[in-house]
Amino acid sequence: EPNENNPTLKRLIEAVKDMQKESEKGIKKLETPSEWGHHYSEFKGDGLGAINKLLETKKGFVAGAFYKEGLGDIDLVWGNKDYGLEHILKRREKQAKNQGLNEQQAKEYALNIAKTIPEVIEKGVKVERNGRMAIEYKNIRVGLKDNWKGEKLPNHWVITGYEKRSENSESLYTSPLITKGETLPLNSNEPNPTTNALKTQEPLSEQANAKKLLKEQHAITPLKEFGTNYPEFALKPKEALEKLLQEKNGQVAGAAYREDLGGIDFVWGTPKTKDSNGYGLAHILEKREKQYKRLGLTNEQAKERTKELLKQIPEVIEKGIKDNDYIGHATIRHNGIEVGLSSQKGNTPLKNHYMITSFETDEKVLRELKTIGTLSNNYRDGINYSTSNLNNPNPTTNALKTQEPLSEQANAKKLLKLESEKGIKAEALKKLDFDEIKKLIDESPRTGSSMTILGMQNLNAEAVEYIQKNHKRIAVEKIEPSFAKDLKLKYPDDARAVIDYQVINHILREHKNLAFEDIANYRELSKQANETLKLKDNQNRPVVASFNQINGFFVVVEQVSNAKNELMLKTMYKARENYKDSLIYKKTLAKSQNSN
């Protein structure tokens, strides 16, 4: 047995203690460097959320904002003009102004650059050159450092730079990631030939200038894959639509234009086949016709209604409000109608930046419909929802009115609604095999009311692993409307419980006693909880925290509501303790607004 009075042993013990103290001091110092400011820990693992937060506060940092296999956690720091996100923004603004953009345009260009960082980190490859680490994707490089002033970082990496590689460093080039096309042709792979001319010309109105540039530059270059281009219909969305409906092939590159999006292509595309999910107007027409026929319309009536429906697209594009759903995709909303856009076809970037991919309406519009020839209020089967122009009379309805008494029409509507609801329940109860589950996950839109419902019984451990490894996002089930209303979700009748790969990564990384199987049960745990508390997070969003006591352990499921009419899984954790004795419960209870 060691002798405590042994001087050699005592010196060794003291030396070890000193080393531990020094180590602890060093770690403490680096966990929150004073230069970095406030730590927004709630955005760990949420790269885009972290960027938006730092853009809003213009200070602070998020440790572990990103995670990359082979690198570990990556911090995002606001910094100042010499380092961090502010440094990146300032450099990009200066670059844009040197190429002829005004101050506002340069700022918007820089902001859009910053918002591509998550996709570069997610899809890019790790590259090390001359002792410097970076992640590269297409023509973009995000620089990383694993130290701060010579000291190793606990989270291993911090973002230090953002570069776009090109042969001519004096010209601005764009990546298909950048979601902006304005005076500068950010969606062109060539230098801007009109920059010098713009500096000497008299100012034009922004719209006229944008249209002029759209015509003059490569922005209206069509893709061969889309077939014949009808260039005479560029910037004429109504005529372009009529032409494609008449020809049933080809495209109109730059058929429409918006200042906040740039050029928008109209593409005829193809219906769904065994080799393709389908795309373009043909795909939208096919879905709408199928939908109307299910509601009892004849083939001819369904075709006519669908054509009328599509004629609203130009108005929605012109008057609607744009939302960015996720990188490379956008939605324009007008009077409850949504037009979905994509900036790439498969892995091919689009020269005109956006192509129409979907057309749908929300529950509010559906509730306003008064005719049997349109959708029932609660019709939902995982396809987009659409309606014809609500301000125009429906010829089908008028015909129906002359054929049957009003009471029979009312009964028909009621029956249609019941049949629709019955169909939903039957589909929701269907148990899928793994190949069917994968197909459903792959084909579902990532956001919006057209997301396919997977069903709780199909969210098993294999499905969770597939979502994580393939960077997917899926709606698990619909939320009870009264509960959705309590969470102040915009359309409670169509609110969805959603899970995505980033939160799965976060849970597995931060809570190693949880597995795919545990995550697969999160909805059941949330609904059968011993106690559920509602509170607000740091972004003032409603959060639901559900506490379960199971075999000596307590399991917590946190879900957060968002602006997309969703209740998103936020995190899960498990510990051996009575949940009411735990610190997390006491803190949550203190913050909660009410409990069940």
UniProtKB/TrEMBL annotation:
Residues 185-201 have a biased composition (Polar residues). Residues 474-581 form the Phage-Barnase-EndoU-ColicinE5/D-RelE like nuclease domain. Residues 181-201 are annotated as: Disordered. It comes from the Bacteria. The keyword Coiled coil applies. The keyword Coiled coil applies. Keywords: Coiled coil. InterPro entries: DUF3519 (IPR021907), PBECR3 (IPR041301). Pfam families: DUF3519, PBECR3. Residues 285-319 form a coiled coil. Transmembrane segments: none annotated. This is DUF3519 domain-containing protein. The lineage of its organism: Bacteria, Pseudomonadati, Campylobacterota, Epsilonproteobacteria, Campylobacterales.
